[in-house]
Fold this protein.
Amino acid sequence: MKNNKVASLSFKSGMAAKANFLGAGSFNIFDGLIDGICIINERGYIEYFNDAYERILRISSRIEPGQNIFMIKNDDVLLTAFRERRCICGRLALSKSDVQVSASASPIFSDGEFKGVIAIYREEAVQDKCRRKDTVIEFNSATVNYMNNIRDMFKDIIGKSSSLMEALKIAYKAAQTSSNVMISGESGTGKGLIARAIHNNSRRAKGPYLIVNCGAIPSTLLESELFGYEQGAFTGAVRRKIGKFERADGGTLFLDEIGDMPRDMQVKILRVIQDKEFERIGSNDTIKCDVRIIAATHCNLETLIEKGTFREDLYYRLNVLPIYVPSLKERREDIPMLLEHFINRISIDMNREITGVSPEAENCLLNYDWPGNIRELENLVERVIALTDGNEIDINSLPSKISSLYRVNQNTYSTPALINMNNSGNIATLEEYEKEIIKEALARFGSYNAAGKALGITHRTVALKARRYNIVI
């Protein structure tokens, strides 16, 4: 080591001491070192770093203990040691610098249990070291190149909203590792697209990529689908079947809707993750497998854990790199880009010439909440292009449930609230309010069913109220 200064007893952050991580009280000895030090725990969260770490690696953005290492600028030495749990040495080639950085990272174990990684960084003049290509590991470059890399990697995902870019930043980091990934978000938000992009840009890209929808396969068949079976294992097993885990060896297995997986199957998945081995149904032979799992869910798994329907230990094994994909109503600014993309693609497929969307129709679509997210938007564009007679999509081309609600909302915003309804000028009774609301809804929507949807009641209730108040449509 170089001549190191002994730091004071104060920490860079009190979080390390609170975590009681590997005797965190001793971290203060690293504060004054000329060499950079970074320590992460078994889940990839930063427990400690010193000033030299930030200086040597030229980290300009603010970082704090408690952040995940995948959310900040990082390097392959630290990541490889974390992923493979072995000592790694190498040199980092910093961009636009006459200094190279030697780096070494070592896993930390306590009673045989993996506790994290400690990494040490030291500056070295380039002329003092012979350049061996196989020992130089490239460090992340400038922010501009970083964002360009993200856009190139996820070119099939349309949008540039800040909430979407935050998700893609984590996905970009995930593609550089082999850690398990948990993608959460509402149905139709593009979780599958992100999962495939992570695989295609990872070191496993040449390996298989297999998909299992845990909610679409009956629980009685899910085990044989995942692990396979031997001939004669049960009635109907006329020949051996190779399961998805065996077929995905060396690649990625995408477990969609993991929240719908039966609890007894969760135990078996946990064993594969921990031991990297399994048996086919009807066999005692253990099969080794090297599979990265990317899981996705539209459920709140924390709630399922509280209810006892999802295992907490499996959750933490899968949730190493969490990615939340925002719903379409959370990134409305991406709707014009998505509309243009879908119109161009679907128009070509249908051999139609659609020039675009009218301002009023676009405003209508921007104000819709999109419960079906991007999938609903794509289906709507296809429907409208198939049915419209003109070259432009206007508000009259849109489904009535969207256009009518928009018109009602616009009318509500442009007119004062209804307070005094009766002729005497006094506040109306609830019955008078109800009569006028039912009458207005039927006049605008033209049917009991549509009026009921707008009012949040059943069509039968609307019909009963209309007969009660002698409202004719």
